[in-house]
Amino acid sequence: MTQGSLMKGSLRTHLKDKLEPNELRLLYTSYDIVGDIAIIQVPETLKLRTQAIAKALLQTQKHVKSVLRQISPVAGDFRLRGLEWIAGEKKTETVYKEFGCLFKVDLVRCYFSPRLSYERMRITKLIQPNEVIVNMFAGVGCYL
Asked: Within 10 Å of residue 142's Cβ, how many Cβ atoms?
């Protein structure tokens, strides 16, 4: 999950006419982008503003085609998180590109976090020629 970097003005700038100043202060400005899907968290106090937040995100991140809201923490044997579709294309499957590798992932069926990209690259650099690495229970199996 790549953390969102804002383009064409910030998310807060796009929402300044749609949210009250106190609501803007509660807005999470960090979110994950996996392929062309953004995953946002919305505080309970802003739940009624979720659509406006998602639409603003689609406007600020032109490569994002779908916005999902995380509705539960990562949990369970398969380390899945509850996600619900909010705006854009109604999908949970995407292709994520990282360091020249492509990963096809369905975010509701498999754990994946772009925030671990540095760790994946760090481990990859430790692998010696002819070594076999087994990454058991790795979700989409991110090590090559």
From this structure: 20
Q: How far apart are CA 16 and CA 20, in angstroms?
A: 7
Q: pLDDT per residue over 26-40, tens digit each?
A: 998 789 999 999 999
| AA identity, residue 143 | Y
Contacts of 46 (CB under 8 A, 6+ apart): 19, 23, 26, 27, 53
pTM, entire model? 0.80
What residues contact residue 70 under an 8 Å CB cut-off, 6+ apart?
Answer: 39, 40, 41, 81, 82, 83
Question: Total domain count for the chain?
Answer: 1
* Domain residue limits at 73: 2-126
> What pLDDT is stored for residue 102 in this prediction?
80
